[in-house]
6-phospho-beta-glucosidase
Amino acid sequence: MTQTYMRFPEGFLWGGATAANQMEGGFHEGSKGLNIADVLPGGKKRLTILQEPGFNFEIDKDKYSYPNHEGIDFYNRYKEDIALFAEMGFKVFRMSIAWTRIFPNGDEQEPNEFGLAFYDRVFDELHNHGIEPVVTISHYEMPVNLVKEYGGWRSREVVTFFERYVNAIFNRYKNKVKYWMTFNEINSGLIMPIMGLGFSIQKEEDKYQPTFQAFHHQFVASSIAVKACHEIIPNAQIGCMIIYAPVYSYDSNPENVMYALQEERLFNHFCADVQVRGEYPAFIKRYFKEHNIKLDIQEGDLELIKEHTVDYIGFSYYMSRTEKKEKTELEKSQGNIMSGVKNPFLEASDWGWEIDPIGLRISLNKLYDRYQVPLFVVENGLGAYDKVEEDGSINDDYRIDYLREHIKAMREAIEDGVELMGYTSWGCIDLVSASTGEFSKRYGFIYVDKYDDGSGTLERKRKKSFFWYKDVISTNGENL
């Protein structure tokens, strides 16, 4: 019997993904306020700096560079870039709205018209090219004022400010955006609360209590957003967004198997359980007890969370993670803000992220088995050094190979019975790396002439992968 493969469904949402803070630039244009990404230093030490206690959310240009301030100048070049996305055949473009373009300080009563008008222009341009926007409401872009004056998501007051923000954008863009997501990689706050939760753990501070209280405030805010979206834009879909990295046990030692299970449930499932199932899972209640975590849950919070769950799960997939209960420094691997132990069966990228296409199929199956809601791969890609040849070409066959194998894994998952909405490759145009603040860590189908030292013309060039992905989309994943 000849084996046949399930085709990608008709209407599959092919496209690319970005974030405002990594590409827009326009640091102070249009009355934009200062956000968290604006104060993040560039360079390979970024994550180390952010994980040290007491980060002060101040700009120090004598000490650091700030590549996010200019990004790739999408703020002024969006028409050129959207035309290139359309040339590839994008059905959707995942982007974020910069919160500080709409509410520069975060706590204003009225939104900033300049910011609202900018996204009107972007959405109109996308629609002119037949591309649907997929909008992340909060993508590591909290107003710095809310961090300094209120303590970020530690504060219940921030829920009110977020509600004001989502109501403003839902009402403004109700006829322009029908795919939304609430918080980007919400579970990242477990490891690095600065970017996702808007605060730095202070010296000698117990990290557990403020982190999980902040998560509770985000869960309430997410449900408020879901409720508002369904009421204001009844035909819209709104999802959550998590990092997903399946956790493998290093070996068959039951101690390591149990440890891997506990790590997977906490990191991969906790936030999704609350946002999709609408309640705190049993395993987290034990975790709270063991870490002496006592949440301040206000009347009506749990009912709100239960009644207003998300429509789908968006997730980023870059790598799997291998764990053992006791590990040495030499055994550790690098990854998307997380580390495990090195997997001897996997190769790694230039930045040490292990490459595991089968892990994407595993992830899709695990998520669908657990939640039975549509899934959307909204980030996946290879950060690599790209070389411009003398004739101007960029032959990124390594990126094509990476993406091809991951798309094959998605096709296998569809054959397994997974309901998959779409795929937006991360950094479809080169941008500032979130983890390192570098331009040299490139993901795009489109090369941007910009370098780590700040030099470059910002000229756009089509890479070899540009034409490959165009063919993938035009054949709905048949030609890989």
